[in-house]
Amino acid sequence: MALVVQKFGGTSVADPAKIMAAAKKAVARHQAGDQVVMVVSAMGKQTDALVELARGITSSPSAREMDMLLSTGEQVTVALMAMAAHALGVEAVSLAGAQIGIRTDSSHTRARIRSISTETIRGHLDRGAIVVAAGFQGIDQNGNITTLGRGGSDTTAVALAAVLDADLCEIYTDVDGIYTTDPRILPAACRLPSIAYDEMLELASLGAGVMHARSIEFAKKFGVKVLVRSSFQDGPGTLIAPDRLAAHRVVSGVALAKDESRLTIAGVPDEPGSSQAVISALTSAGITVDMIVQNVAQEGRADISCTVSTSDLPQALDVARRVAGEIGAAEISSQEGLAKVSAVGIGMASQQGVAGAMFAALAAEKINVHMITTSEIKISVLVHRDDAQRAVRAVHQAFVLEEAASVAGPAIDAAVIEDATVSPLEVVQRLEGMEDLAIEDCHLDETQALVTFIDLPDTPGVAAEVFGELGRAGLVVDMIVQSEPRDGKAELSFTVASEDRDLAATTARSIAESRGARVADMPHVAKLSITGVGIRSHSAIADRLFRPLAEAGINIDLVSTSEVRVNVVVAATEGERALAILRQAAGL
Ligand code: ADP
Ligand code: ASP
Ligand code: MG
Fold first, then answer.
1. Domains (ranges, CATH) in the chain?
2. 168-173 and 226-230: which strand pairing?
3. Structure confidence by residue, pLDDT tens digits, 449-480
């Protein structure tokens, strides 16, 4: 007998007929002898409708009352779903988050799960009932109803699968699996038979709305196999599984975040701790920042830019103004109307020239790239929103993703993955709350050099030209960061193996000369990588890791973040000391 969690999203429970159809799926599984926990969302667009209702009363509703309001959507569905199962002749019971014992912190409208009791659910399963759990909601230590953030029912489902040690978590939705990009944006997108946790985590957090990113954190940490499939048609779906079981495609997907804004704090004193203060203040306010770029300091002052979602911009500006006052920064600027396009793939880590190929595809479409950041498994570019769709198409085409499904991997066969056992990560044992920041490891790479182009003219295609030339010179580039251009000039930094440093510096100088730019280079730098799960979206990271470095007087020269890794580059002489500080701060 297996235990299966089946989650049904809004469109899958939008009307009574769809609720009946969902109940039939659960009942069929139950009658086959399995234990079934259903997790359901609010019907159709009900959550949006509730948000609108609140807006009719006030533009700034209290977050606690918002949760009280929004949680009602799921409560309607659970009751109807249990009735549907009854109508099919099967015992079923509906349970709200509080009744299950889904305990969260108190950050209303974006609460994180601390613990889940299993007794109530197990009791009902053992007596032969289907349990119908309300998605998206929990209860804090004072008995207040909380919600997990929009799209959070996925997270409820995978978290329940984790604590119940379920054999499988099925996500029933309105697409028949995970596609190489949103099929609504690009019909040429193709369904992937399987995708690695790390890829799905990145794609989801970079804008692929198909899964709540935090659900994949749970899946990876607790070793839950997730199968995404259509509510409306039968098919194999997409299995989300450990990296070792998935195909190692160079690029598996392209994500689009279409409402991004850039925030720049200019004239920040170039001292350890200044950039940390900015990022830390933003993240402490619950704002997720991405694409953090700091320029090389000129006359003791640097600019720091990052991207935030446009809905967070007003709050981000308030926070930035306050911090700028405290640290004596000169000015704050922002730009709306941008979009972030990211290519994600675990095979990227072992393949050269991927970033160059992406920049070339964008250049061929004459799309101007505002900012660039990379990590081992993803490349993100910031473009104008009007260019976003074309950019997605260009990148998708460049990596031939319409044929991605046919790329075989070590164990791409879904049946193989379905049979494989997946264990929880060791780090889980050290966590106090289920959703706490999970840092797995921290290591030091002292074999890199850092090269920076200063005053590079910001013409469309410049990144493609630069990385094209570096590639032709035989250079393998690791981290890449390009700043937002100022007065038509941008900064572009990259790291290479230090044994290639001379070649890199000479090539860079000749590239720079022909464009009226300059080159600064650090022949030896220390790159520290902190690996874990859900790193970027946890607000604790800046405080926990950057602050101790700042307090020890260590300056960060370059940083790149992803959901599974933060890289920071510091002076070579500080490498060992920084490693010790980070390991201690991370509790390793
Ligand atoms: P549910 O209500 O079932 O939770 P969502 O609307 O949250 O469904 O997610 C499903 C939608 O996600 C799809 O209709 C699709 O437009 C969108 N989507 C975005 N990126 C992808 C992707 N890479 N693969 C599949 N669907 C995607
Ligand atoms: N009903 C909630 C929302 O629309 C949660 C979910 O559907 O996952 O965001
Ligand atoms: Mg969803």
1. 3-245+407-430 (3.40.1160.10), 255-402+438-586 (3.30.2130.10)
2. parallel
3. 999 999 999 888 899 999 999 999 999 999 99
152 lines ligand 2 (CB under 6 A): yes
Smallest-distance ligand from the CA of 191: 1
Asked whether 50 and 109 are in contact (CB, 8 A), the reply is: no
Say how many CA atoms lie within 13 Å of 420 toward its Cβ: 21
Q: Within 13 Å of residue 563, how many CA atoms lie on the same side as its CB?
A: 27
Angle, helices 197-205 vs 213-222, to 10°: value is 160
Q: How far is the first Cα of the chain from the last one, in angstroms, to the nearest whole number?
A: 39
**Assigned token pair, 585:** 């701060």
Using a 6 Å cutoff on CB, does residue 178 contact ligand 1? yes
Closest Cα to residue 225, out of 306, 171, 272, 299? 171
Task: Judge contact between 158 and 219, C-beta under 8 A.
Answer: yes
Tokens representing 314 are 């007003």
Q: Does this model's pTM top 0.85?
A: yes
- What is 21-86 written as a DSSP string? HHHHHHHHHHHTT-EEEEEE--STTHHHHHHHHHHHH-SS--HHHHHHHHHHHHHHHHHHHHHHHH
Distance CA(116)–CA(213), nearest Å, equals 19
Q: Are 501 and 523 in contact (CB under 8 A)?
A: yes
> How many C-beta atoms surround the C-beta of residue 415 within 10 A?
10
Choosing from 158, 182, 240, 340 the residue with most ligand 1 atoms within 8 A of its CB, the one to mutate for a pocket test is 182
45 lines ligand 2 (CB under 6 A): no
207: Cβ below 6 Å to ligand 2? no
Confidence of residue 32 (pLDDT cuts 50, 70, 90): very high
Tens of pLDDT, residue by residue over 167-200, are 999 999 999 999 999 999 999 999 999 999 999 9
Question: What is the identity of the amino acid at 285?
Answer: A
Amino acid at 553: G
